Structure formats: C-alpha cells, structure tokens
Amino acid sequence: MKRKVSVIGAGFVGTMTAQRIVEKNLADVALLDIVEGLPQGKALDIMQSAPIEGFTGRITGSNNFADTAHSDIVVFTAGFPRTPGISRDELALKNGGIVQSVVEGIARHAPDCIIIMVTNPLDVMTHLAWRASGFPPQRVMGMGGMLDTARYRAFLAEELNVHPSDIEAIVLGSHGDTMVPANIHTTSKGTSVSGLMEGERLDAIVERTKKGGAEIVGLLKSGSAWHAPSSSAVAMVEAILTDSKRVLPASAYLTGQYGIEDIYIGVPVKLGAAGIEEIQEITLSEEETEGLRRSAEAVRETLKKI
Length: 306
Hints:
The protein is of the alpha/beta class and 306 residues long.
C-alpha cells in the first residue's frame, strides 16, 4: 500500500509542502483545511500538473479531519502566521488553541502517525502537540532546526561565494531569536568558517539568521516564508518515509541531554521509520551549552504563559 502523508493547513506552507511531497513521489497526500473549497481547489490544481511533472502520487483536498486516517505522517502547518509587530508570546496564545483541538483529532483518526510541527512559535507548539496527542515523544517533532540551519548555510555560502552544499553547519536551540549555531561544527569543505571570515562578519550572519523569518515578513508586508519552511519539512518527511537514518536538526523532547529535560528544543536527531530514533549530543563550547539552556528556558517560560 502506498504511503500517506496528511498536511494540515492549505496556506502557502501547507500547499507547497503537499506539492513537494507528491512531486518527489514520496507518498499520497491529503491536504486539509477548515475553509470550504480551499484544499480541494489547491489539490485539484496540483494534480493537473502530474502529466507535466511526471509524478504518480495522488493528492486530495478535504475539510474533514477524519481523512487523516491511515496517515504515516501528519505535517501540521495550520495557524496564524507571523505578521509585523506580533510577539512570539502573542502568537503562542493565538495558535495554542488551534494546535490543541486539531491534534486531539489527529490522534483519534491516525493513532499510529508521526507528527511534524511547522506552526509557530515552533518549539512551544511542538510541546503542546505532544501533550495533546498522547504519543511517545519520538513520534512528535518540530521543523525549526532544519529551517534555521538552511538559512545559516545559505547566508554563509553567499558570503563565502561557495556552493551551499559545501557548507556544513547545525543550528540548535529554539526556532527564533535564541537559536544557537554550533560554531565548532560550522565548516566549508572541512575548513572552519570562523577562519574564513572576520568575527564581526560571522556575528552579523548569525544575527541575520536569527531574524531570517522576520526579514521575510518585513519584505512581504503580509504573510511569511513558505519556500524554505516547506523544503525543510519535506526533508524530514523523506528521511522518515525512506528510513534513511539521516542526522538532521529538529525540535525534540529532551530527557537530560545537554543538561536539559522535559522540554522540546532544537538538537541534532537521527530520523528513521520510527521517527526520532536517537538524540545526538555533539560537542559544544561552554558558551554554546549555556545558550542552548537559556533557549530551553525561554520556551519553558512561554509554555507557562499559555
């Protein structure tokens, strides 16, 4: 039987995620949204590109969340987007109720699925989704680390004028202003990036990465990023469906790793058919370790408020 992925939310991120999944022939897709006609219309539009793009997967749109049944993976993109001037705490309050109610439905209809959260604030919403689902933590994860790392690598490649795939990097911590780049693991074809540019320039790239989403929001004026977020989510979907054991950064539930417990935060994980199959503890400087712990506490404080 062909694999199935449900995508919750037919906005820009959700639609692009669904499109990438079927175009890669990873799975059949159910695209779901509460707005009548929206997911159906977008799914029909994508299906009509199949003869041109050559994919064989099917995509259907629905307003009935019971259609998540038999999903191997559910990608959750629904919720209010970031807009200029809104704080992450305010966004958490607005999106928390949506996540709670929808994830409870997912757990009823697709009790064996793996959930990948994309909704912001990412780490907080991932924690709420885990609580609402009742799933083991290895089956609930957040996409944020993938996106932050992709942005960091893209900015570094642009600065150094090298191919983006030549940049090796990993960004830990909460998705947002408290993210923590692991500098000792940031290289260009094995050469430490810190030795290839001035420290001030590297610091500026880190700051730009932290505000990567806000920069796009400011330029668009209405709405937020969707190309890189969807690409990040689909990389995680592919790693799970193919049981590739890829080590990728993701928001995961820690139980003492890095001196942190009982919270979701971005760390390197091994992804496979079971979801998060291992949380990897990499070498960090004392400053990076403290930064990661502060990031976790910021997530914890936001959770307390909602």
